[in-house]
Every structure is written in C-alpha cells, then in structure tokens.
Amino acid sequence: MRKLLDAFKGELTDFVEQRNDLLMLITCTENEAPITLKLLQDVEQENGTDVFLLFADDFVAPGPYVDVAIERLREQHQLADDWLAEQDREPLPPLPEALDDQNLSPVRRLGMAMMYARSLLPRDGDHRLIWAMMPQHIHDRDAYLDLLSTFIPQRGLQPGMQGLRLIFREESDTEAFRPELAGGPRVRTRSLVLNQAVIQQALQEEAEDESQPDEQRMQALLSVALFDYAHQRNSAALEKLKILLGYYQHTENTHMQAFVINTAGDVYQRDNQPSRAQHCYECAVPLTIESKDPVGFHTAVKNLADLAFAQQDYALAEQHYNSAQQIAARMLDPEAKIRDLERRGLSQEHQGAYQCAVISWEEAATLARSIGLPPLLHSNLEHLQRGYRKLGQTDQLAAANEELQHLATPVSIEEQAA
C-alpha cells in the first residue's frame, strides 16, 4: 500500500519538476479525493522552493467556486502579509480589484488570480507555483469541465505560464467522458485507483517484500488478514493470524498479541467453532490487562459474553456482560455501558429473573436518557415494557408506554424552543 502511494506521490513530484506540461488531471472517486489532497500536501512539505496553493472546496457552479477560490487566496495573502510585517519587510502587492468584479467571467477572474499569484514568486532561482483545485464533490460536472478546459494551452504555453503548474481533480472516467480534455496538449492524466482489489494486492506485495522492515510487513499482512476475514476466507485469515501471533510473541508486543488472538476468536466463532473461539477470547483477556489496553479488555470480555449468550449459557453471559459494563464505565464509554447493560438484562430475562432484568434495563435507559441516545433509550424501554407486564407494574408500564410514544413523535421547533 505504501509503495502504491509513494509511486503516485512520485508522479506528482515529477509533474511539478518537469517543464513540458501545464496541467495534470488527477482522476479518482470522491472517496479517494482526500487521499490525493494529502499526497499533494506531502509533496509540498518535501519541496523547499515552490509555492503550493491547494483548494479543496466542492464545486457547485463556476461563479461561486471562483468566489471561494479568490477568498482563499485573499486569506493566504493576509497570512503572508502578517508574517512579512513580523519580519519588518515590505508587504505583498495588493490583490487586483478586478478579482472581485462580478461583471467579468469566472474563467477570467480565476486566470487573473493565478497570474497574480505567479507574479509574486521570487525572480531568482527556479521557483514554481502549483495551483491545485481538488474538490471532493463535483455537483455539476459539465460546468466544472467547461471551466477546466479553458486552461488547456491549445496554442502552446503563453507568457506567464512558465513556472506554473495546474492540478485539477476529476472523476474516474474522464478519458471516456471528455476524451478531448484528457488528451489535450500539455495535459497529463493520472489515475489514483484504490478499490478493494487494488489495495489488497498492494498490501499482499508489501507483506511479501523482504526489503521492507519486518514491522511494516507485518502491518501489511495484518491488513490482508482482515480483508480475508471480511470476505469470509476463514482458513486464509487464520493462516496469516498465526504468522502474526508468532511475530508479535517474538517482539513481546502484548497489545498486538491480544488483538491478533481476539481476531482469531472472531474467525473461529463465525466458523462455528465456539470452543476454539472461547479459548482465544480467554487467552486475550490477560494480554489486554498486561498491555494496559482497556478497549481490548472490554472487547475480549464482551466477546466472551456474546459467545455464552449464543450458546444459551445465560448465567455465564450475565456474568461477562456485568464485567463488560464495569469496564466500559472505567473507559468512560457510556454507549458501550448501555449496550452491555441491555444484554445483561436479556441474559437475566432468559433465566426468568425479571426483577433483575428490569433493574438492568432501567439503568441502561436512565443513562441513555441522560446523554441523549434515543435509539438505545427506545430499545431499553421496549424491554421494560415486557418486564413491567411480567411483574404487574402497571404504573411503570404506563410511563414507559408514554415515553415510547413521545420518542416516536417528532418534536416541533416550537416545542424544542419552549
């Protein structure tokens, strides 16, 4: 995975340093757009001579989009002026007034903004301006591409374009959607594809690359194991988890040992091997304690509870859920505590201990009510309805019914303000 991202970052660096192309189209999905922006930021940090202006605002329409870009430029201008003042140096030339002239087309105003920023670069040395527009969401693609296409140098590089690099994020199918754009002069197109198959293949290659540090290879192998688990390739996942356990035992990393063993328990449980799953969860518990990992501790105990509940050993499930809710309280995780209390109540209900079950659900409902978690409050109130009916507590049942009805009724703005 790292090699894949490093290769793409290398292409960004190459585009910045080359002299032939003016514009780079980065084609990717909305989910991959933030990653491309982060890679550009990494290139900026490693570059000591050039100026990067990165714009990540969504595109809705040309006018508002350019308005926001100019406002971002104005903010950067002010920051630069503040720094120059601290250094007792002359301020930058002011932004051209025409940038705010709504009678000019958005294309012209954006071009003027680029040329102004380009004019601020030092004349000595090989300095470049990298202007990157990386909207995650493009709501009007045709309008966006029309704007973008105006910056393709159909007649070659013009004066002022030297030292300028334009980078635009686009959707994944540009070459099919607008072939004249992707194949335009002085334009290079690069795709960042990070779908599931590509990521898994990259991680597999990284795990097998013996030139990489062992820790990095094991992290990649763990990611591949989790992919296997997610796609129910249980045998493949367990094979990798055994390798990982051996490595983390060798490095005495108890935190990762616990994580790997707990994950193996999940695989065994889904593979209908409850005794092996229970053994894994029980082995994970002391490791989480040794590594002082409360989240892992809670996960292992809750897994033991869920396993006991699935096997209809409700007395054991009750004990484990009770321990889990205590751990959740120490973790300051109220949502986890509510869920553990709810499951403790269900375990008690299955044993016919309705009085105890009602106490569990009332505690869960009180906590859900106090921190504002309506879905969890709703489910516990429904449990309480059953408990109150069984115990003949009519007043409490009426109150639960009324609260449930209130939860199901949308609250008006006027009621919220009252």
Structure commentary:
There is one protein chain. The protein is an alpha/beta fold and 418 residues long. It has 19 helices and 5 strands. It has helices at 2-17, 33-46, 62-86, 106-119, 141-149, 174-177, 179-182, 196-208, 214-230, 234-250, 254-270, 274-290, 294-310, 314-330, 334-350, 354-371, 374-391, 394-408, 413-417, and strands spanning 23-27, 51-55, 129-133, 164-170, 187-191. A 5-stranded parallel beta sheet has the order 2-3-4-1-5, sandwiched between helices. Helix 5 (141-149) links the parallel strand 3 (129-133) and strand 4. The longest helix is centred in the N-terminal third of the chain and has 25 residues, at 62-86. The protein is elongated. It starts with a helix and ends with a helix. Residues 410-418 have low confidence and may be disordered.
Please describe the topology of this protein.
Layout lengths: L1 H16 L5 E5 L5 H14 L4 E5 L6 H25 L19 H14 L9 E5 L7 H9 L14 E7 L3 H4 L1 H4 L4 E5 L4 H13 L5 H17 L3 H17 L3 H17 L3 H17 L3 H17 L3 H17 L3 H17 L3 H18 L2 H18 L2 H15 L4 H5 L1
Parallel strand pairs: 1-4, 1-5, 2-3, 3-4
Helix pairs in contact: 1-2, 3-4, 8-9, 9-10, 10-11, 11-12, 11-13, 12-13, 13-14, 14-15, 15-16, 15-17, 16-17, 17-18
